[in-house]
Amino acid sequence: DTLDIKMDALRCHKSQVGDDLSRDWEERMRQRHKTLAEGEDYELAEAFHRVELRR
Question: For the whole model, what pTM was predicted?
Fold first, then answer.
């Protein structure tokens, strides 16, 4: 499942997520993705925020 791959990738970046990723963290991630998919025809979803930098 894509979310499992994403969480495995995050675990590889300890500087971003720390040394001790708990089971609670995994459950919060999964619940967040489920919440984003509510009302849609799929189980999990992601949301992205576009950031524009002006020069």
Answer: 0.68
Average pLDDT value for residue range 7-11: 83
For residue 3, give its domain range: 1-55
Question: For 4-30, b where at least 16 C-beta lie within 10 A, e where not — what string?
Answer: eeebeeeeeeeeeeeeeeeeeeeeebb
Q: Is the pLDDT of residue 16 over 80?
A: no
Q: How many domains does the chain have?
A: 1
Cα of 24 vs its chain's centroid, Å: 13
